[in-house]
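Subject: for your reference before the review

Hello V.,

The reviewers asked for a structural picture of the protein, and I figured it would be easier to keep everything in one thread rather than splitting it across files. Below is the amino acid sequence we used in the manuscript, unchanged from the supplementary table.
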Amino acid sequence: MQRVSPLKTERHDQTPHELLECWRVFLQEHDHSPGTVKKYTQAVFHFLAWHEQEERVPFKLAALTPIALIGYRNELQHEQHKSVSTINLRVSALRAWCAWLVDQGYLPLDPAARVKLVGGEAGSKREGLSSAQVNALLPRPGLPRSCAQLCDCASVVADGDSLK
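And here is what came back from the structure prediction:
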């Protein structure tokens, strides 16, 4: 369900870039890491620049719609061929910014609430256990294993040793 917040009409005189700066300060004050603050504010800045270039008009909060957000995500994915992690970072940043805009009363509804992340290759390069390694971890009839023994076996197998 989307969040609905009463609008604070007296606060609508700020530009999107001023709101972005307010959000940056909010993120810092709420213990987000400096790297997250930098990446998230850059992501929203990129969106604002893209939207202004696409529409050829200064960005207004009224233009912050699910269609605009999905259009940006599709641009990143299909036209700019950004990596899955870059796209998802930018979508996550936009989700967080939109949620903040609703919480602060700048928007009545969260336009990013249903904007999905893109799928793709798993972020981890680690390979799972082979069938032989999994079978080595399974208890054999008459030889029950405790959780501690299974953990010890798993670490040995994960390091490349085989169990007999």
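For the response letter, the relevant points are probably these. Helices lie at 16-29, 34-55, 66-79, 84-103, 131-137, 147-158. Residues 34-55 form the longest helix (22 residues).

Happy to draft the paragraph if you're swamped.

O.
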